[in-house]
From TrEMBL:
Originating organism: Acidianus brierleyi
Keyword Membrane: yes
Transmembrane annotation, as ranges: 286-315
Keywords: Glycosyltransferase, Membrane, Transferase, Transmembrane, Transmembrane helix
Identification of the protein by name: Glycosyl transferase family 2
Domain Glycosyltransferase 2-like: 44-196
Pfam families: Glycos_transf_2
Top-rank taxon: Archaea
Sample GO molecular function, one term: glycosyltransferase activity
Length: 353
C-alpha cells in the first residue's frame, strides 16, 4: 500500500502546488497599456433578458449612470413572459431599442441578435442582474489597436464566492498583462465588431469566454482591467448548485471546443495560458479526488492525520475561506464535466436570485 500512499501525496502536492505556482507567476505581471480614446466613443450595449421584471429598472439606470447617454444605444433583447419589455417601454428612454424574440432559445441567440442590430463598432454585452461599480469608460477606452476585447473583474454577494473570485481576478489580470485571458465575464464583455461579429460565434454557451478566445486566436489581445468591477448575485441553496453546474459545463465545453484551434495558432504566450487554464479546469480537480482516494487506500492513519490538520487549519478565518472557496469548486468542476458530456444546454431553468 506504500505505492498508493506516495501516489496520493504526490497528487495532492501537484493539485495544490500548481495553482499556487501559476498564481505567483502571473501575479508578477502588470498590465501596461494606454487609452485609445481621448473622449468617449460610441457604444452599443446589449442586455439579454428573460423574466427580469424585478431587476431591469435598476440595471438600465446603472448602465445610464455609467456612460454619457449621447454616446450609447441600449439593445434589450427580450424573450420574457413576465412583461419585462413592457416595463422597459414605460421608462421612456430614447437610447433604448427593444428586440423581442418569438421564443426563448438561450443567451447566445440573444447576443447574436443584438450584435446584428448594433449600430456601433464597440459592443458591450452585460447580464441583466449585474451591477457595474465603475464608469464604463474605464474599460472601453482601451478598445483599439492591439486590444480587441475587454472584460471586468468580479465580486459577488457571497463571501465564499468572493474568496474564489479574488484568486481568479488576480489570474485574469496577470494573464491579460502577458497577452490575453481565455475567460471573460458575462457581467461586462466589450469587443470590436470589426474583429468579432455574430457569424464568428457558434451557438454555444460561454459566449463571453468564446469572444475572448476567438479574439486572441485572431491575434488581438483580450484583457480584463482592474478599474472596472462588476457585482454579480449568487443564488442560494439548490439554485446555487444549478448555477455553478451551468456555468461550469459551458466553460468545460469551451475549453474542449477551442483547444485544437489554440494549439494550431502562432501565439505562444496565449497558447501557454490556454493550456494552463485547460489543466486547471479539466485535469486538476481530478487530482484532488484521486489523491484523497489513494491516501485512504494507502494508509488510513496518514489520511486521518491530514484530515485532522485540515480541520485545525479551519480555525484561521483566511484559511477557512480559502478552503471553503477552493475545494467545493473543484467538485463542481468535476460535476460540470460529467454534465457537459450530455451536450450543449442553452436554455436553462432560471435560478432564483
Amino acid at each position: 500500500m506504500l505505492e498508493f500512499l506516495i501516489a496520493g501525496l504526490l497528487l495532492l502536492i501537484i493539485h495544490f502546488g500548481e495553482p499556487v505556482y501559476y498564481f505567483m507567476y502571473v501575479k508578477g505581471n502588470k498590465l501596461n497599456i494606454s487609452p485609445v480614446y481621448s473622449e468617449p466613443p460610441k457604444v452599443s450595449i446589449i442586455i439579454p433578458t428573460y423574466n427580469e421584471g424585478d431587476k431591469i429598472r435598476e440595471k438600465i439606470k446603472n448602465v445610464l449612470d455609467s456612460y454619457p447617454n449621447d454616446y450609447m444605444e441600449i439593445l434589450v433583447v427580450d424573450s420574457s413572459n413576465d412583461g419585462t419589455d413592457e416595463i422597459v417601454k414605460t421608462m421612456g428612454i430614447p437610447q433604448i431599442r427593444i428586440i423581442k424574440e418569438e421564443k426563448r432559445k438561450g443567451k447566445i441567440f440573444a447576443v447574436k441578435e443584438g450584435i446584428r442590430n448594433a449600430k456601433n463598432n464597440l459592443v458591450i454585452i452585460t447580464d441583466a442582474d449585474a451591477i457595474w461599480e465603475n464608469p464604463l469608460i474605464n474599460a472601453v477606452k482601451f478598445l483599439g489597436g492591439e486590444i480587441g476585447a475587454v472584460s471586468c473583474i468580479k465580486s459577488a454577494n457571497s463571501e465564499t464566492e468572493n474568496a474564489y473570485r479574488n484568486f481568479y481576478n488576480v489570474i485574469r489580470l496577470g494573464e491579460s498583462a502577458i497577452f490575453a485571458t481565455p475567460i471573460f465575464h458575462g457581467e461586462m464583455t466589450a469587443f470590436r465588431k470589426d474583429i468579432i461579429n455574430d457569424k464568428d460565434l457558434p451557438n454555444v454557451g460561454a459566449d463571453d469566454s468564446t469572444i475572448a478566445t476567438l479574439t486572441a486566436i485572431k491575434g488581438f489581445r483580450a484583457i480584463c482591467v482592474k478599474d472596472f468591477l462588476a457585482k454579480e448575485i449568487a443564488p442560494k441553496g439548490l439554485d446555487y448548485v444549478s448555477w455553478k453546474m451551468r456555468r461550469g459545463s459551458h466553460l468545460v465545453r469551451h475549453f474542449f471546443r477551442n483547444l485544437s484551434k489554440v494549439l494550431k495558432s502562432n501565439n505562444q504566450y496565449f497558447k501557454k495560458i490556454f493550456v494552463e487554464e485547460f489543466y486547471l479546469h479539466i485535469i486538476n480537480p481530478w487530482l484532488l479526488v484521486l489523491g484523497i482516494l489513494f491516501l485512504a487506500i494507502g494508509n488510513i492513519e496518514v489520511f486521518s492525520i491530514l484530515l485532522i490538520l485540515l480541520l485545525i487549519s479551519l480555525v484561521s478565518s483566511k484559511t477557512r475561506e480559502a478552503i471553503r472557496a477552493w475545494i467545493p469548486n473543484q467538485f463542481f468542476l468535476i460535476l460540470a464535466q460529467l454534465f457537459a458530456t450530455k451536450g450543449e444546454v442553452l436554455a436553462w431553468k432560471k435560478e432564483k436570485k
